[in-house]
Amino acid sequence: MEKEISKIKELAEKYRDYTASNLSKLVQHKSLSLQEKDVQYELKRQMEEAGFDEVKIDGLGNVIGRIGNGKKVLAIDGHMDTVDLGNLENWDFDPLGGEIKDGYVHGRGSVDQKGGPAAFVTSGRILKEMGFDKDLTIYFVGSAIEEDCDGLCWKYIVEELGIKPDYAISTEPTNLNIYRGHRGRMEMRVTFKGVSSHGSAPERGKNAIYMASKVALEIEKLNERLKHDDFLGKGTITISEFVSKSPSLCAVADYAHIHLDRRLTWGETKESAVKEIQDIIKGMNAKVEVLEYMEEAFTGLKYGMEKYYPTWKIEENHEIVKMAVSTFKKMYNHEPKIDKWTFSTNGVTINGYYGIPIIGFGPGNEVLAHAPNEKVPIQHLVDASVFYAAFAYELSAQ
To answer: FRET partner for 138 with CA separation of 20 to 30 A, picked from 32, 188, 238, 245?
Structure first.
């Protein structure tokens, strides 16, 4: 393995500029969720140029490149959609410029999260150049629609394409640390039905806004008493939207709803989170529901899932974590930091729904995700491309 690591490092360094240039090209394609077509065709072109055995775009718009045809299956995932640019006055450079300067690739998506796929394209090129012929199939997935609905892409891959890997790596940004989990999340709506009356006689009606307001204050209290996990931290809940309606501005509101962003720590489930709200609204003309996501991909396919994204974590002594640590130590000769994401990733379906062992290792610092002046160190891209290729050798030796 020492010989392979040395060769991988040599080639990753040789392709430093190639990797940075590939990422720059990806950044230059604006790719909001459901609008990834241009960037996906660019990623497909890059995989083909790198000599992948097979490259295709599936029905949902995911780019899937394959190397090898072994019994054991590894998937390396990175999503290609990004959030929007935000206030351009907050940027010191063109967010879609893909500028390569001062050891960084600059622009929206460089960290969250096109840097990972740019690195894994180079990993694929390295594996092909080294004549990788182990009993392993590697799927390199440039996934779609993650920002709008994390994990939907992998629901499609597992359930519609029948691809269920034995192991997976998420290339979401980890600052080159090894991540093994994050809190889950879900989106709920609580709807309140009141009775309208003339605004001059509010006592004749039942104001839905007052009902919702009382519940809002109870939800604020609920946030303080939610579960805590030593690794993942505390569960949270917040109201992100408050909407009301009435027949006129001179009438009592007969409708209101609040939108809840619920972050779930270990031991909290969809059922337990819904029950907490049901207990608060007991006796009111109100209902809580978990929302659904259903949208049309750039391919024209309509596809969706419930907006419940389970909590997941992999134990530190799990074989995939051990393999990741072993790979890291062979690269750097020191122990890695093992941590978790603050935000949510495609791991919610990969592990949360399907139980596939997964770790995270990606270029860039997650504090720059969704932020202005997003940029990723080129050295991170080089190191990530080493890790993905080296991990393939580590896994195939097990």
So the answer is: 32
Q: Would you call 146 a catalytic residue per the annotation?
A: yes
DSSP 46-60: HHHHTT-SEEEE-TT
Catalytic residue among 36, 58, 81, 366: 81
Q: What structural domains and CATH numbers belong to the chain? A: 2-182+311-396 (3.40.630.10), 185-296 (3.30.70.360)
pLDDT exceeds cutoff 90 at 1: no
pTM above 0.85, yes or no: yes
Catalytic annotation on 48? no
Could you check whether the bond before residue 113 is cis, i.e. omega within 30 degrees of 0? Answer: yes
Q: What is the mean pLDDT of residues 47-57?
A: 98
Q: Which helix (H) or strand (E) holds 322?
A: helix 319-332
Q: In this structure, what DSSP letter does residue 302 have?
A: E
User: Over the stretch 168-183, which tens digit does the pLDDT of each residue have?
Assistant: 999 999 999 999 999 9
Please give the pLDDT value at position 121.
Answer: 99
Catalytic residue among 112, 146, 147, 254: 146
Structure tokens at 15: 């392709």
How far apart (Å, rounded) are the C-alpha atoms in residues 73 and 380?
25
Is there a contact between 32 and 80 (Cβ–Cβ < 8 Å)?
Answer: no
Query: Is residue 2 pLDDT above 90, yes or no?
Result: no
